[in-house]
Amino acid sequence: MSAAQRQPFPWAAAIGFGLGVLRLSPAAFWSMTPRELAAAIRARRGDAGAPLDRHTLQALMQRFPDRSEGARDER
Length: 75
Fold this sequence. Notes:
Blueprint: H1 11-21, H2 26-31, H3 34-45, H4 54-63
């Protein structure tokens, strides 16, 4: 990967998640290694699988179509 293709580390998102969602103290956040932070984020978010392929998405859309505006909630 060339330097032009690399994305800068998303510090704002990492700090926001660490302090806001994980509720880490600043000292705890800054003492973590990137691997520790990544593990904590995965533990909180869960492991997301690969994105859906087009076929799977279309099958889900057919199985669970959006409701029309006039439809009543039958629950």
